[in-house]
Amino acid sequence: MTVTVAAEDPRSDDARALIAALDAELSGLYEPQFNHFVSGEGLAGPGMRFFVARDGSGQPVGCVAMRPYEGFAEIKRMFVAHGARGQGISRLLLDAVHDAARADGFEFMRLETGDQQLAAIGLYESAGYRRCPAFGDYPADSPHNFCYEIRLSPAETMVSHV
């Protein structure tokens, strides 16, 4: 499958549909206090970046966002549609958000994922992410929210995504 990843407006109809599908999936896995949703409007804020993966026919099949913090960037809203999973799209999205973070001068990237998202945990750990303490508004004592971090620079610390 040919897939392209490009920056897009998180308020577009396609972006909203991807975000709604992600919200529905996460709402089925966790109680509300363990979900940390950001809307399309929130993803369009200052310094935010939003990327959409599209298949060869132009259909949206995934998304990811980047939120800047002081000293690091955070991955938000990483999602691949069910019918498109297992085809390397999550790696393409991860590469895009890492490239954007490096271009914006960030040396570290962090993220939060849930304990029920085993495929996501596997993806992040295989890419070189390691568990780290909670950051931002994530609760330090949550049994469901896991935080991860990777050093983006220097580049040789990255695991190849070939």
Automatic annotation (TrEMBL):
Keywords: Acyltransferase, Transferase. InterPro entries: Acyl_CoA_acyltransferase, Bact_Acetyltransf, GNAT_dom. Gene3D superfamilies: 3.40.630.30. SUPFAM superfamilies: Acyl-CoA N-acyltransferases (Nat) (SSF55729). Signal peptide: none annotated. Residues 1-153 form the N-acetyltransferase domain. This is GNAT family N-acetyltransferase.
